Amino acid sequence: MKNFEYQNYIYSRKDENDNTVISVKGVDIGSNKLTIMAGPCVIDSYDATDKIAAKVKDLGASVLRGGAFKPRTSPYSFQGMGTSGLDILHDIGNKHNMPVISEIMSADELDYFIERIDIIQVGARNMQNFDLLKKLGRTNKPILLKRGFANTIEEFLLSAEYIMKEGNKNVILCERGIRTYETFTRNTLDISAVPVLKRLTHLPVVVDPSHASGIYWLVKPLALAAVAAGADGLIIETHINPRESSCDPEQTLTIESFTSLMDELLPVAKAVGRTI
Amino acid sequence: MKNFEYQNYIYSRKDENDNTVISVKGVDIGSNKLTIMAGPCVIDSYDATDKIAAKVKDLGASVLRGGAFKPRTSPYSFQGMGTSGLDILHDIGNKHNMPVISEIMSADELDYFIERIDIIQVGARNMQNFDLLKKLGRTNKPILLKRGFANTIEEFLLSAEYIMKEGNKNVILCERGIRTYETFTRNTLDISAVPVLKRLTHLPVVVDPSHASGIYWLVKPLALAAVAAGADGLIIETHINPRESSCDPEQTLTIESFTSLMDELLPVAKAVGRTI
Amino acid sequence: MKNFEYQNYIYSRKDENDNTVISVKGVDIGSNKLTIMAGPCVIDSYDATDKIAAKVKDLGASVLRGGAFKPRTSPYSFQGMGTSGLDILHDIGNKHNMPVISEIMSADELDYFIERIDIIQVGARNMQNFDLLKKLGRTNKPILLKRGFANTIEEFLLSAEYIMKEGNKNVILCERGIRTYETFTRNTLDISAVPVLKRLTHLPVVVDPSHASGIYWLVKPLALAAVAAGADGLIIETHINPRESSCDPEQTLTIESFTSLMDELLPVAKAVGRTI
Amino acid sequence: MKNFEYQNYIYSRKDENDNTVISVKGVDIGSNKLTIMAGPCVIDSYDATDKIAAKVKDLGASVLRGGAFKPRTSPYSFQGMGTSGLDILHDIGNKHNMPVISEIMSADELDYFIERIDIIQVGARNMQNFDLLKKLGRTNKPILLKRGFANTIEEFLLSAEYIMKEGNKNVILCERGIRTYETFTRNTLDISAVPVLKRLTHLPVVVDPSHASGIYWLVKPLALAAVAAGADGLIIETHINPRESSCDPEQTLTIESFTSLMDELLPVAKAVGRTI
């Protein structure tokens, strides 16, 4: 165990009762009730997103996720709908009374995000984009900060500190898998990070089993494991027809699979003293 | 997802009902009932081991673990009691009616192991010691094969195949953490390996949360996660007084911690349809 | 060897004579003559930087490096002098007739960089900050793109493509070590990346042995290895008194060490048909 | 830089003049003259091996390599000719007056190796097969110890210590690439390990650019880099017709490529004060 200095930061947990709960439009993230965030990888139309939102809400999801600005390795891949995608997400969130989350890639769109999006996501590739972190720290929006795919827990917490130091204490940490030598899965879910983060910090911790595995049939067992290990929530890619999705079809759940996941998640949540 | 050829091997699972159960002295490994293996990292005396055995059996462990030959990075570290440690383990196993498991480091001791030990463990450093694997394949002893700390799932399964090809089908797979860039934990538990292995092979899969984390307070959450993800059992370092243990005191549970673990494990096991 | 699609990109090398040379203030990067970039990790005063510049130029360096905006893991570490650091670097570059290079962390300072800095560096943490890459692609400034510390060669080249697709073909690639399980060195210099990049792309390739190793006494052997493997240049942290430097003292060369490096580099350069 | 205890071991270098030279049949490994070991991945016939030996000796190789026992990931891959392969290697070594090196996989064959083989190789997968190391330590044969593909430099040196502690001081260290997330190359050559090992230990250090890269066109630049970084020798897979080789054809040099390598290696060796 590496002995880093994790005391005396704003993120540091003082004792076992020191747990931040972030409330957004009636959803309490970090509370005893698990927060399930679900929705498509990328927003490609109003109708498809609307149908997915209706379904996942009905099945127990409380936050709607959807990408409008997509960080793609290649400049020739579809980059997302941009601001019009945010408009769609905002309208559908209102319609179904669900807070919405979407990833920001540049501070240029910050005002647009602040007006339309309830939780702003910082993706793994921008976890150490310190300029962006500082600017988000000067807002009061909840920020879901994803762990960089090759960043240590210490670096992850210090990136959270960049946001909090500027004044914004509403940070949600998200473990989404790290890069290792193993090639069977897209990434390696660092399940240990969940109890480590819960011990070191008072911030809510959610897990993304979709990006961690990259394989649809691994999402359910990893989701159960995450909750058993103490996660406060999950963020899951879901689509009416994954094969029609513009990105990540291999890791996206169908509504049937999402239903099955929620069915099996409930008893595990209860077993560790949580509700859904 | 890497597309390796996993069909048509002896280890390959034919369908979802194809699950090998390995029975050893009344313990069914790979059955609906979880197998809890517990005991000291290293056997250093009859009395200490006897006390631990009595306690862990009482708390629900069904297999007694204990090291006699220890693979130590430095030649100047304590290397274990050797054959006299196996004698102690064997006697205490008989006394408490528990099958015993211990790690083999050389085929030279194979006859001694066969006479005294019920499950022979191959450690992570010997996962690709193909000569040893072949010799174990010519016995009919149950073999617990630990994944090498930098081996892929494909390599892990092909090492199992080395044993099975020689005739011994009694192989138990053990995920024990892989080596990554993260230094907070001793290794990174590859929790995804559990459902992947359960899908690709009919062999029982157990998890070692002690070596995976290297930190005593991580053993419980990782154990719960492993069972939630589908593991068939756990192997856990436990000691009456970890600080007196000759090795790995930081990751060894006290009896109090082991009690707490078993208490919290039961509802999670039930939640995923298992018993203990 | 992974079989990725590297043909038909703007970065793709057509044949062994297809080598881009980037000329900046009389320095030809990617030519037969090696480009040595040297200077302090961070600019902390006019006088110290001026002295270093005079020394390294005299010893054969042709580009002056110096950080003004520093990407620090912790928000409580010194973040650099900012724009006033760029002013100092610009003035000293003019005085000694050396082009200057410095790292940009936010597009907000792009105009300031364009006016004062000859080569704009994108650091490892921003290699997939696609918004920044696109904006740099709309300038005609030479860009030194550092490989992310956990990015593949394929991802590295596609980030270069992000810049080039917008119109700016003046991209210099920089290998600076990758993150592995080895903890003796700060990173692991991926020396193979040098000949791989030289084969796949027509762009100049330089190596940063300072960040790759994190240890001053490794800078020289790694620099020799880089040139032997085909690198077009080096970027090296150098200081009159490393212990006075505000960052990275352990990996910074003294003038004496830099002198020794240049002395030993010359015959190796000649041995592979290069000049300095 | 990790601060491990490397002083006061048998392997520890006392000062910069403390360099072990291992003499075997007139070849001085660790001396100012580089040691080039070359030959086929696997011995598959007398005639092919004889032709290769004649060629590589003529081109400057002083040690003949050839595999007889091959550690293969799958039990269904060709496992080598076994003892008859050792016989062939021994006879051809005598004919051409070259010491021979081959990999041992089990102590069962130790007597056979001692009689016929001049340098016994321990492969990466057996670097922590401590039983084998101890038995080799009780011989006086030169041992070429390959670094495990996921072992740290500290672990590597302590495995050397296992051999030396038993009495055998004739250990040659071999860096052959480590396992990382990068998939373009088979492994990542840790070039920094060369100067680190040369500083910490008095033992000879050789580099295997064939296994490190897995790609024939990378062998030459990596070989030049290794010598520039201070390696005492190289071990290179070479074949008259790599496509006919039973293993590793993609990384094996033709005689033409080996000739070109030796031609370009000579000036680099001279540049760093070595001969061939």
**What profile does the largest beta sheet of chain A have?**
8 strands, parallel, barrel
Mean pLDDT of chain A equals 95
Kindly report how far apart the N and C termini of chain A lie. Answer: 33 Å
Looking at how many chains there are and whether they match, the oligomeric state comes to: homotetramer
**Which structural class fits the helix and strand makeup of chain A?**
alpha/beta
What does this structure look like?
The structure is a homotetramer of 276-residue chains. By secondary structure, the first copy, chain A, is an alpha/beta fold. Helix content of chain A is 36%, strand content 14%. In chain A, the strands form two sheets. An eight-stranded parallel barrel of chain A has the order 3-4-5-6-7-8-9-10, surrounded by six helices. In chain A, strands 1-2 form a two-stranded antiparallel sheet. In chain A, helix 2 links the parallel strand 4 and strand 5. Chain A is globular. The two termini of chain A are 33 Å apart. Chains in contact: A-B, A-C, A-D, B-C, B-D, C-D.
Q: What is the compact description of this entry?
A:
The structure is a homotetramer of 276-residue chains. Chain A is α/β, with parallel strands linked by helices and 276 residues long. Chain A has helices at residues 46-58, 83-96, 110-116, 130-137, 153-165, 193-200, 209-213, 216-228, 255-271; strands at 22-24, 27-29, 35-39, 63-65, 100-104, 119-122, 143-146, 171-175, 205-207, 233-237.
